[in-house]
């Protein structure tokens, strides 16, 4: 994966050190990233058009000066849900324990490990390439190829074949996948029916977390039109 390492390093140097508890504040029923604007302002000192996004488990940085990649940094904590009656002490930071990789607290590391496992089986084309970049203050930082999420991709020029659409819908009815059938049909057209079926068989029988959290923001397309998963670490809390 080729990208401008100097831009990535400058962004990280401005971002660190991270807050001691780096994650989401769900204490009021919403999902908010504490110090959002402070974090963004630090990054904008290096790249004024940088964008940041976040899910439940990680911060994602999209540099405008390194357009082919995103930077992923794992959260190390989040507030307990105030409506969770099973927890006695609500509103306190708690750790992640449910990532399926070698470190249950790190969903970015889990994603990287899943990529390596898929690569061993020659199935890595279905997911965005993820590499371990460096470690700062004990935090592992990862870089992933940037792809276009499903909702932002112009699919009018990438219509799947009628045959593939029929197969994808049949698979959905059989419970082989629960994702957008047109996206799955694109997989069949780009990677072949047998290879695509092998990928879903692997996910269902060996690593179901890959497709555990696949809303339409977590799969999309590369610039060449090939379909790809861009967030495949799963999520459980």
Describe this structure in words.
The chain is of the alpha+beta class and 237 residues long. It folds into 2 domains: 5-146, no CATH class; 152-229, no CATH class. It contains 6 helices and 10 strands. It has helices at 5-15, 36-44, 107-120, 162-173, 181-191, 193-205; strands at 51-54, 58-62, 69-74, 78-79, 93-94, 130-136, 139-145, 148-149, 219-221, 227-229. Strand 1 and strand 2 form a beta hairpin. The longest helix is centred in the middle third of the chain and has 14 residues, at 107-120. The chain starts with a helix and ends in an 8-residue tail after the last strand.
Strand and helix map with partners:
Elements: H1 5-15, H2 36-44, E1 51-54, E2 58-62, E3 69-74, E4 78-79, E5 93-94, H3 107-120, E6 130-136, E7 139-145, E8 148-149, H4 162-173, H5 181-191, H6 193-205, E9 219-221, E10 227-229
Antiparallel strand pairs: 1-2, 2-3, 3-7, 4-5, 6-7, 8-9, 9-10
Helix pairs in contact: 1-2, 4-5, 5-6
Brief synopsis:
The chain is of the alpha+beta class and 237 residues long.
Overall domain count: 2
Low-confidence stretches: none
Structural class: alpha+beta
- Portion in helices: 25-40%
Residue share in β-strands: 15-25%
Distance between the termini: 32 Å
In round numbers, the mean pLDDT is: 89
- Write down the Rg: 19 Å
* Topology, number of strands: 10
State the order of secondary-structure elements, H for helix, E for strand: HHEEEEEHEEEHHHEE
Order of neighbouring strands in the sheet with most strands? 1-2-3-7-6
| Oligomeric state as shown | single chain
Q: What is the makeup of the main sheet?
A: 5 strands, antiparallel
Q: What is the overall shape?
A: globular
Please tally the helical runs, counting DSSP H or I stretches of 4 or more residues.
Answer: 6
